[in-house]
Design a protein that fits this description.
The protein is built from twelve helices and eleven strands. The protein is of the alpha/beta class and 396 residues long. It folds into two domains: 244 residues, Type I PLP-dependent aspartate aminotransferase-like (Major domain) (Aspartate Aminotransferase, domain 2, 3-Layer(aba) Sandwich); 137 residues, Aspartate Aminotransferase, domain 1 (Alpha-Beta Complex). Helix 6 links the parallel strand 4 and strand 5. The model has no long low-confidence stretch (mean pLDDT 97). Bound molecules: pyridoxal-5'-phosphate. The site of pyridoxal-5'-phosphate has 14 residues, from loops. One of its GO terms (molecular function) is cysteine-S-conjugate beta-lyase activity. Its EC number is 4.4.1.13. Belongs to the trans-sulfuration enzymes family.
């Protein structure tokens, strides 16, 4: 593209992914942005320094590299501004610290990413924030839980590991009637398959560690806010000294270029495997929002544009004392699926899911939950691997 301004507003998503962020004309025509390693930025004179009257002033306050990524994320999210943080977990803790004070009450979805619960139950609680967990499928009923001191409602859809869908529009509307900030962890869908701000969310959170990175080699998070919440979010990041690293920012922007085509592959392969699992007698249930059999399917269909490659299934095991042994037998037999945390990379992963921290949405009783991340491998090979796992579970 000869010049970024010619990218039309109705361009398709892959066209936009190929061109957003960096304007080649701003840096000698090079297609990719420079990786700027910086602390000091020089000023021409004291007046400029005093007024901070130039675009860049210090390494923590943004560079052409971090700006290129933040601009790309703003275009995808429809946000007024984006901060970069050192991990997806920090993309949750930083906005919570930005918007919560001692004496406030926060409503957190019970199917939340587990380390978020740890942050809430330890540090936020110690600082005097009252934490309450709510049912992911509460919808507009969230209003009954809102108290005069409720300041923040945190959502995540689908829920971590068990994939419950949330009616984000209904929750946002109820929360806003009481002046609450609504945050959403949108890591699973990415802004390509769901745009939280279009559904009333104020602050959209991402572990860019996952699909934007795409290669399991970067830890980074992003937080994008609407115009009303951007100043307070930005101030918090600057006040705490939190910023994105140059090489990581460069690589996340690089990952975004191919995220659309990668996601299409993840989506197709994951659905193929999910349907195949659903047809097996040794599978009790498949927890995937794009399956019509899944309880939150209608919300997913109404609000989301697609599904990524992470979902879970319940292995059918009658005797609860056998849950662990059967799940371990299956997982230890897999060879293509790696046994490891995180997801969004090119390689398939499988993990046993521990739901002991849940307060409301307890672990299923019809068998152990196993989470899959379907990578970029060929589906026939993945099914072969899983088949061997099921045989081992049956024999265990
Ligand atoms: C992985 C993940 C995070 C945390 O990301 P890290 O970069 O690993 O800290 C946050 N939210 C969700 C939903 C995740 O899956």
């Amino acid at each position: 593209m000869k010049n970024k301004a010619s990218l039309s507003g109705d361009a398709g998503v892959n066209t936009r992914l190929a061109h957003i962020g960096h304007d080649p004309q701003s840096y000698h025509g090079f297609l990719n942005p420079p990786v700027v390693h910086a602390s000091t930025v020089l000023f021409p004179d004291c007046r400029t320094m005093e007024k901070r009257d130039q675009k860049y002033t210090y390494g923590t306050r943004g560079t052409p590299t971090t700006d290129a990524l933040c601009e790309a994320l703003d275009e995808l999210e429809g946000s007024a501004g984006t901060i970069l943080v050192p991990s997806g977990l920090a993309a949750i803790s930083v906005p919570f610290l930005a918007f919560l004070s001692a004496g406030d009450h926060a409503l957190i979805v019970d199917s939340v990413y587990a380390p978020c619960r740890q942050f809430c139950d330890t540090m936020l609680t110690r600082m005097g924030v009252e934490i309450e967990y709510y049912d992911p499928e509460i919808g507009a009923g969230i209003e009954t839980l809102i108290k005069p001191n409720t300041r923040l409602v945190h959502t995540e859809a689908p829920g971590s590991n068990t994939m419950e869908m949330q009616d984000i529009r209904a929750i946002s509307d109820a929360a806003h009637r009481h002046g609450c900030v609504v945050t959403m962890d949108n890591t699973w869908a990415t802004p390509l398959y769901f745009r939280p701000l279009d559904f009333g969310v104020d602050v959209s959170i991402h572990a860019t560690t996952k699909y934007p990175s795409g290669h399991s080699d970067i830890i980074m998070g992003s937080v994008s806010a609407n115009a009303a919440h951007w100043p307070q979010l930005k101030d918090a990041a600057l006040t705490m000294g939190i910023c994105g690293a140059p090489d990581d920012s460069y690589l996340i922007l690089r990952g975004l270029r191919s995220m659309g085509v990668r996601l299409e592959h993840h989506q197709r392969s994951a659905l193929d495997v999910a349907h195949w699992l659903e047809g097996r007698d040794d599978v009790a249930r498949v927890l995937h929002p794009a399956l019509p059999s899944f309880p939150g399917h209608d919300i997913w269909k109404r609000d989301f544009k697609g599904a990524s490659g992470v979902f879970s299934f319940v292995l059918k095991v009658n005797d609860p004392s056998q849950f662990k042994a059967k799940a371990h037998a299956l997982l230890d037999t897999l060879t293509l699926f790696g046994l490891g945390y995180s997801w969004g990379g090119y390689e398939s992963l499988a993990v046993p899911v521990n739901l002991l921290d849940r307060r409301i949405r307890r672990a299923p009783t019809d068998g152990p939950v196993i989470r899959l991340q379907i990578g970029l491998e060929d589906v026939a090979d993945l099914k072969k691997d899983l088949k061997a796992g099921f045989a081992a579970a049956a024999a265990a």
